[in-house]
Every structure is written in C-alpha cells, then in structure tokens.
Amino acid sequence: MARVMITCPETGKPVYTGMTFDWHAFESVQIGEKSVPCPACGKLHTWRRVDAYLDEDGGGA
User: Most buried of 21, 28, 53, 57, CB within 10 angstroms?
Assistant: First the structure.
C-alpha cells in the first residue's frame, strides 16, 4: 500500500493524509473534500483527490 500525500501550500513539504491505497484503487477512487492538520506549518489544509499523490515507499505491505 502507498500513502496518500498532499503538498503543504505554505512550506512545499509533503504531508501524509492518513489514507493508504494501492495504485489501482487510487486511480479509480472518488474522494470528497477532506482536511488534514499539517505538521509542517501547523495549519489545517483542505484537499481533494486531484490535489493528492501516492508515496510509493509509505504504508508497508
């Protein structure tokens, strides 16, 4: 499984959303608007599926 990540708009650092998917499922899943507290800047970031990407090394199998 891979971790679903977004990029912090304040710092440009990657932020883990708390979600994991395999690559195939991530391409087809519909994710509504979500929010995640950012450890990089301390703010709450709202994101959608189009804002996210997978971190191949995350999650473990």
Answer: 21
